[in-house]
């Protein structure tokens, strides 16, 4: 089961290491790092790389006796040239560090653009195949009667959940989607956090065809990875009866 929104390793580690994330994003990444050894190792590697960039051009301090002798023997013009050379060395080191930071930022941006384009293609494909949809009803206190809609292809396994009007959960919590089987068991369908406007979009890949499920629910669970089974308050959901929706 995969739900593309906040996956185990889908974090901006380069941006986190560079301090480019806003506070809310940084908190989410920090919570993920607490539970993910793989990402902690990757962050350590990135921080080592940044440290290397900062020392890649290291000025070598000459022995004090040599420096004093040169200063005594050199005329004022030579001194200015010598100081200028040291200044250019410092500028070169700073330029190299800046170049490294820019390269990391460009790489991050390119990756995000590729991921965005890929997600848009998947969304378009799911909507093109979808032959059924239903309203997701708000159930928790403070939630509107309707919080979104789910689109599915009854003969397939892909689905698209579009939500709005959601409040941000408490710090350290996420929303988790569950698919309900006919026997009452629940299957994890992914976790997500809404944006500042209260909107969220989640691509769902069910382990079985959608006709094997009779509904969906959303609960509040510990972040960033959610729970193996529902433990928190259910804030939204929907039920369906496939027998009433026979294919035409």
Automatic annotation (TrEMBL):
It is found in: Cell membrane; Membrane. Its main location: membrane. The chain crosses the membrane at residues 85-106. Residues 13-40 form the Putative zinc-finger domain. It is a single-pass membrane protein. GO terms for molecular function: sigma factor antagonist activity. One of its GO terms (biological process) is regulation of translation. It comes from the Bacteria. Keywords: Cell membrane, Membrane, Plasmid, Transmembrane, Transmembrane helix. Residues 91-232 form the Anti-sigma K factor RskA C-terminal domain. GO terms for cellular component: plasma membrane. This is Regulator of SigK.
């Amino acid at each position: 089961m995969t739900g593309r929104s906040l996956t185990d390793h889908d974090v901006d580690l380069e941006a986190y290491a560079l301090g480019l994330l806003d506070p809310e994003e940084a908190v989410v990444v920090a919570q993920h790092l607490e539970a993910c050894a793989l990402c902690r190792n990757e962050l350590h590697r990135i921080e080592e790389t940044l440290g290397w960039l900062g020392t890649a051009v290291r000025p070598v301090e000459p022995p004090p006796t040599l420096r004093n002798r040169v200063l005594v023997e050199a005329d004022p013009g030579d001194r200015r040239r010598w100081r200028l050379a040291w200044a250019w060395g410092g500028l070169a080191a700073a330029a190299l560090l800046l170049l490294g930071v820019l390269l990391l930022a460009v790489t991050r941006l390119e990756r995000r653009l590729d991921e965005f384009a890929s997600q848009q293609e998947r969304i378009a494909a799911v909507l093109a195949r979808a032959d059924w949809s239903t309203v997701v009803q708000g159930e928790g206190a403070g939630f509107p009667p309707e919080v979104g809609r789910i689109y599915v292809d009854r003969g397939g396994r892909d689905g698209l959940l579009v939500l709005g009007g959601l409040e941000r959960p408490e710090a350290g919590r996420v929303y988790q989607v569950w698919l309900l089987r006919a026997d009452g068991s629940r299957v994890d369908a992914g976790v997500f956090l809404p944006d500042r406007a209260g909107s969220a979009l989640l691509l769902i890949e069910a382990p079985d065809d959608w006709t094997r499920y009779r509904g969906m629910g959303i609960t509040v669970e510990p972040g960033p990875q959610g729970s193996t089974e529902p433990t928190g308050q259910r804030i939204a959901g929907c039920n369906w009866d496939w027998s009433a929706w026979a294919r035409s």
